[in-house]
């Protein structure tokens, strides 16, 4: 029935205090990562713990930190593979299986606006394979689901939604062209996106 249905089945069987989801090609950063994260969890045990991520692209690795939580208003500021959520909250909310790509954004955004306690740990949690996954290869669907989440409860025409999708696709095409110029790429990207810590080429 889809990725999120499978994740919901995993949630039902989970017994630990926190749940983290990794997709097929994602990996924990190092063998010591989980221990290092656990050692930094405060005693009040926040609802959501999140950290940095390394995104593997076709020609480089992007070392990324999350954005401001206030950005939940308009986008997904943290990285699902580098997020731990309390088991009890995942069981309470679960993933909305009507989404194919953006159910993680949907549930974490709901938690944020439900006043869940988010806690940032400045460590790299995960290496995310950002080349072949469904969220990396289907920009149009990702953007439509994102707009559905952001505009839930509001009236918005499908024509306007299609316009937003086309603008986003144009943005991605321009970004991909810029990436071909490796000499200027690091400087330009860091200026455009403050979440980028560094880029290492393969």
Summarize this, please?
The chain is α+β, with helices and mostly antiparallel strands. 43% of the residues lie in helices and 20% in strands.
Overview of this protein structure:
The model has no long low-confidence stretch (mean pLDDT 85). With 202 residues, this protein is an alpha+beta fold. Strands 1, 2, 3, 4, 5, 6 and 7 form a seven-stranded mixed beta sheet that branches. It contains eight helices and seven strands, in the order αββαβββααβααααβ. 24% of the residues are buried. It has helices spanning 3-13, 33-40, 87-93, 103-113, 134-137, 139-150, 158-179, 182-192; strands at residues 18-19, 27-28, 48-56, 60-64, 83-86, 118-129, 196-201. Helix 6 crosses helix 7. The longest helix is centred in the last third of the chain and has 22 residues, at 158-179.
């Amino acid at each position: 029935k889809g990725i999120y249905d499978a994740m919901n089945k995993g949630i039902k069987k989970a017994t630990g205090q926190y749940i983290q989801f990794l997709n097929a090609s994602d990996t924990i950063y190092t063998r010591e990562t989980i221990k290092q994260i656990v050692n930094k969890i405060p005693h009040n045990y926040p609802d959501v713990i999140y950290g940095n991520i390394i995104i593997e692209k076709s020609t480089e690795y992007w070392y990324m930190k999350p954005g401001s939580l206030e950005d939940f208003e308009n986008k997904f500021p943290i990285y699902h593979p580098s997020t731990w959520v309390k088991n009890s909250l995942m069981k309470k909310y679960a993933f909305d299986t009507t989404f194919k790509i953006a159910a993680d954004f949907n549930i974490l955004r709901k938690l944020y606006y439900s006043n869940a306690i988010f806690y940032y740990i400045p460590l790299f949690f995960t290496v995310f394979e950002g080349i072949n996954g469904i969220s990396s290869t289907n920009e149009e669907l990702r953007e439509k689901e994102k707009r559905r989440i952001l505009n839930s409860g509001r009236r918005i025409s499908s024509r306007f939604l299609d316009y937003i999708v086309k603008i986003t696709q144009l943005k991605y095409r321009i970004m991909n062209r810029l990436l071909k110029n490796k000499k200027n790429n690091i400087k330009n990207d860091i200026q455009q996106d403050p979440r980028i810590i560094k880029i290492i080429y393969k």
